[in-house]
Amino acid sequence: MLSRKPSLFQIDKSLSKPERVMLVGVMLSTDYSGANETRERDFESAVAEAADLVHATGGDLVRIETAKRERAQSAFFVGTGKAEELAEQVRLHEIELVVFNHELTPTQERNLEKVLQCRVLDRVGLILAIFAQRAQSQEGKLQVELAQLSHLSGRLVRGYGHLQSQRGGIGLKGPGETQLETDRRLINVRITALKRQLEQVKKQRATRRKSRMSGSLPTFALVGYTNAGKSSLFNRLTKADVLAKDQLFATLDTTARRLYLSPEASVILTDTVGFVRDLPHKLVSAFSATLEETALADVLLHVVDISHPHFERQMDDVNEVLKEIGAHEIPQLVVYNKIDLLPGKAHQAGILRDHEGRAAAVNISAVNGDGLDDLRVAMVEYVALKQDRK
């Protein structure tokens, strides 16, 4: 029977206390460009975000280790000497899980576990852990499981390193390889079944979308970096009760509501999963049915946490994902959220217009409601533009 190996992806909630985690961030020359100061700042931001991801799983982050390299080493990602240093820190701080803020190859992950003598998780596995904990709907659970199994299929060998490996000759086929082949086959069968179920979900979603669009209402999709405040804004505008928390990836499931803007304009507003830097391709693929809601919208409301020190980088990351799913050419209205967290009155609520006088962005606070009337005005203008183009 196939072992699901949930510990590869999630912190065990049954434990009396959270796992002790060490985060490893490596600054590769190939990953960062520009002046040294800019590269350092981007790297620090990436490590801070990884720390937030660890906290989001419920792990106890007890240590952060950083290093610089020209390029990743094929065996350990970090150098042999650094791997030994990390092993010493694991012993010293009784670390149970080491998280690398990069995507590791199965070989690197396996080698690191042998040296560190504890579990190792890469960035993809870490994000999958959060998604596995947060998925609520049946569709969300199917999508997460598909992404998990796709990630796991290349790492199965790690579970059988202590068994005899396959060798040539009659009667010399090892039990480890037999179990490995069985697990791989069962995983492939499950992946095929999941894809079939998600294809059915996609058809059902298309039917519901067609029904919504039969009234010819324009569709506005909320997009943005995770924890930018999309769900809080969605709840404020539609009086819905979508889960809104100050944490990464609080929302995984798409929700749609009709929103009355004025006597002349009503729209369909959808809340979607948040994006993140270097969003794993496995997740983009697995969540294709959900992300399709974004790609088929008439207007994107790009929600930005203006209080974040690297909000411009986050905007670029979101636009990269939009390009990947074919939604980069859809008109965008930028919504600068969380102006209430800025010192003084650095940003006043209101509409920011381009040189032609069209609404390009709106400053708001979804928490206290500042600027929401201005946002509605800007949305009405976009509805009018859409109708003029017909």
TrEMBL record:
Annotated binding of GTP, by residue: 224-231, 249-253, 271-274, 337-340
Subcellular location: Cytoplasm
Segments forming a coiled coil: none
Domain Hflx-type G residue range list: 218-387
Pfam families (alphabetical): GTP-bdg_M, GTP-bdg_N, MMR_HSR1
Binding residues annotated for Mg(2+), in chain numbering: 231, 251
Residues in the signal sequence: none
UniProt-listed SUPFAM superfamilies: P-loop containing nucleoside triphosphate hydrolases
Cofactors that this protein relies on: Mg(2+)
Broad class of where this protein is predominantly found: cytoplasm
Family classification: Belongs to the TRAFAC class OBG-HflX-like GTPase superfamily. HflX GTPase family.
Quaternary state and interactors: Monomer. Associates with the 50S ribosomal subunit.
This protein's name: GTPase HflX
Organism per entry: Neisseria arctica
Upper taxonomic lineage: Bacteria, Pseudomonadati, Pseudomonadota, Betaproteobacteria, Neisseriales
